Amino acid sequence: MRTSGVLLPITSLPSRYGIGSFSKEAFEFVDQLKKGGQKNWQILPLGPTGYGDSPYQSFSTYAGNPYYIDLEALIEEGLLTREECDSYDFGSNPQYVDYEKIYFSRFDILRKAFYRFQPNEDFAAFVEENSFWLEDYSLYMAIKNSCGGISWSEWDEDLKHRNPDALARKREELADEIQFFRFQQYEFRKQWKKLKTYANENGIRIIGDIPIYVAFDSADTWANPQLFQFDKEGTPIAVAGCPPDAFSATGQLWGNPLYRWEYHKETGYQWWIQRLRYCFTLYDVVRVDHFRGFDEYYAIPYGDKTAEFGKWEPGPGLELFEAAKRELGEMDIIAEDLGYLTESVLQLVKDTGYPGMKILQFAFDSREESDYLPHNYSSNCVVYTGTHDNDTVLGWLDEMAAEDLEFAKQYMNNADTAKEDLPWDFIRLALASVADKAIIPIQDYLCLGGEARINRPSTLGINWKWRLLPGQIKDEMLEKMKEMTKLYGRLPAEKAE
Questions:
Q1: End-to-end CA distance of the chain
Q2: Percent of the chain's residues with pLDDT above 70
Q3: What is the CA radius of gyration of the chain?
Q4: Is 389 in the active site?
Q5: β partners of residue 5
Q6: Which of 28, 389, 404, 406 is catalytic?
Q7: Tens of pLDDT along 259-309?
Q8: Closest C-alpha to 431, from 392, 477, 377, 475
Q9: Is residue 336 annotated as part of the catalytic site, yes or no?
Q10: Active site residue 391
Q11: CA 38/CA 34 separation, integer angstroms
């Protein structure tokens, strides 16, 4: 079935307390999606963020971001008062997240709620059900906080290498702090479940992300070093990234630890299967980030300052996904297959049957034919005007070469469209394509410029900040969204009363 949807990270929702959360504004956004005839909401990863504030560099592949916990709900539960919440400084600009202020305020107010919280049977059941990741994560974060926030690689040797006696002492010493992190995850999961259920009941499916790599500074690497390319001291042998290309002369040095794929194979890929199983309890559809890495991954020697001297190594390929399918059945997965793709990567995507991604901002190179031009699509794909890593359409148009812009106008026959309305032409192009799914960033529906960009890859300190303003989505825009969705066959026939 042809459908469409909107890309909007949770952080970018409006809310009263400095950052998007599972608040009433999130439920109102679901209502707006329904009113606009949409069937999908893509939200990006939900994990807790660290240095750089990126959801793709999380302290845990399982845990949820405590910033998303709705303080209003805690007020309703009697765990906080409105006066307490209003006494904190969460930032003064409703259009941008002030992460420093959020960091210093949010955990303090959550701790107040925690001290009033009385564990019940529901909490006990949550802790038991999620013990396979929650205990390591809670212990890890408690130790990390007690050590001033430094990475596990800098801890005392006994803690770094998980000496059982040392861990037992920390569990006793930090019992209250460990419980605090369990509480955060309980509230996160409870609130997220409520929001997702509401979305599903209103015909909206949630598309979430699973980053291929985990952060080095994470509970995952500390608790399971055998999964990664580490030496005996826990130091990475090589790290992830991308080689030099037309966009970067020195490549991209991501720094994530790489997997010991031979070990994963020996264990029947159980860690990955468990990870995917959990993801499908959070999301209806999972977008697997950097899908190419399962075919081949780029290994950069640890300590290198650039990505220039890495080399390609073989990944697990189809074998991993076949193993997952045997245990989990058919999985609704989107393969993020962007960038330079070899024949073997293209074959892997084809063999899995997963839809790949088409980005219209990659389509209009006047020098060559592009696979991203809609006339080259098959139906088994997801088309975007742009992603969280791209500029908005208007911002992108400002940076386009004149000959590429002319090519785009010829392709769409829209030379007379006013610049401020051009995003709607690209939206129309996406919706009219044969792609089964079309996902549009909300910024493009709102015709916003580069000030609303979410992320600039390989930069720090300026990303993941943009937010919707209260009331910014108007009924007129939603009506236009629905009309266009219906026009291009992405709106199921409405049932007669």
A1: 23
A2: 99
A3: 23
A4: yes
A5: 40, 439
A6: 389
A7: 999 999 999 999 999 999 999 999 999 999 999 999 999 999 999 999 999
A8: 377
A9: yes
A10: no
A11: 6
